[in-house]
Records
---
Amino acid sequence: MQWLVLTIGLISLAAGVFLAARSGRVQGHEYTPSGRPENTGPVSPTPPPPRATSEPAGFAGSSSPGVPSAAARNGSSREGQHEAAPHAGLDFYRLAPPGPARPALPPSVTVEGSRFLAGRYCTAPLSLAHPWLFGPLVARALPRALWQALAMGADQAGDIMLWPWAAGINALPDRFALLLPSLRLGEALALRQDPRLSLAALVILDLRLGILPHRSPVRNGERPPINGASTGAVTRHLRGSIRYLRQASGGAPVVVGLGIGKHLDEEMCLMEQAEADGVLLFGSPLATPLRLPTAAPSVGYPLAVGLESARTRSQDGKAPTGILLAAGGLSTPADCLKALALGADALVLDPWDSDTLLATLRQAIQSPGTMGQLLAERTRVHLTSLWQETTALLRLLGCRSPDELSPDLLLPAPTLRASLARPPSSWPPPPSASPPVAPPDSCPASSKAPVQLRPRPLLAGPPHRLRQL
């Protein structure tokens, strides 16, 4: 009799548990089709800790359309935390890198004193303390100690290091931008958990050598235009690669590097169709003189032509370019101000273009074990002094920040276009110093009127530019 009662009790208990599971509710949890319980009871007043991102606290969102806010991105977490409700757009996919996550920003980076670069498709905007990146534009075979020294100096100055793909995964800095050449794109697509992708705050896909597998040969510095039959295949291949790089980096901006040539407008249109977040223009040093007594002419106009074309493209009502970066021979504060005034959002400073770092780099290559600390210190001093000189030139122009720069501070637009259209043989020679004027005592006796020296203004801009001088 006791065994019969025990059997009936067990059957009743099993039936109760089965009916409760069928109804879908057990102690305030609702069972989803995936088998994972979802809490439907009261929410705890303490929210779960957000995942570390590349944004400072207090950044509520971005001005670019289609970019979700930081709270929506922080709500999408990993396993074991409450999942955020699905949203429309990119937030539904919850881009999370399969590798290690990026560390949080240092407390020195604030919303007021930083520049945020966000494209139309990224979910983690790039924050810069200064309007430039620092690193070599061409991957060089440097020892590991020198890569660490350059990254240490850039980090101490508050800048982001440009890390080439060929530098490897050893001694990665805390915050860096990845420079990925098109020849290594297949290798990057095969490595799903590479820390160079998951930890990068910005991914630059360098297409100066063409697009693989549809790579075009470079002849005489120019690539032939892509014909109409292969444009669709190139766009699909490039769009899929950019989407994968964006997902592998946790929603970081993916910028495409292009060389300035006669087909720049067509290539920029192709990059917009491939859903790139921006364009990096590689060119030679700028030659557009500023109205400053310290401005010296440089060699070549290609970078100025590319920036002018990108700005004209945005003003004509075409699709916006997104993030616009400039690189090539930018080593002085005047060159940096020229590129920023022509519309660049940020610059890329190559240490091999700096005269102050070139000698130290050559010595460090010969003896990397003893020159690493000196290279890091000189890198920090170079970047710090460059920012101080750039700030001084900004105040001389009457600007409080690089955002107030405009092409009006350069040559007039008709004169600039006319000078850009002329061949290099007809470019004017560099301005020479005016001959010294003899004092009045040494003038010939026939000259009755004394020599009148007219003071030449340093700035020939509108009056509101001279308020803070």
---
Amino acid sequence: MRSYERDQNWADNEEFVALLPELGAGLPIYALLEYIGIASFNHNPRQLERLVSATLLDLRLSLIFPRPSSEEPLAALHDEIFIKAYEYMKQRQMSYGDAQVLRLAEEDGRHDLFVTWNARHFRGRSPIEIITPAQLVRRLKLNASGA
């Protein structure tokens, strides 16, 4: 996810993005879709397709997809976009997009960190540790220095 130079977090983002290929990071499909939506305002369809492909390949991100709750496609879709999200929003007081992204990360079970610049939207609402990209970079530097 290449950041924009005018972003106040640009330097931290660049450092974080440089680390991603080595971290075995996962990206919930809903987070990718939000990224595509935001990027679509500044890119034509062809540029957008290249950007998304490059992001996934260069950063070696694995996409996290929903697990169907039913073999019946319409029932699974209904559960995915309404029932499960509604339960998360209701129980954790979250927006739809935040609920969907966090739910997939939790259901996936392969990751023990959730990295986001919107950490305050998620803290206290998940058993997964929530940190910002800058916090992760600092933590990795401390671990590398043996501190």
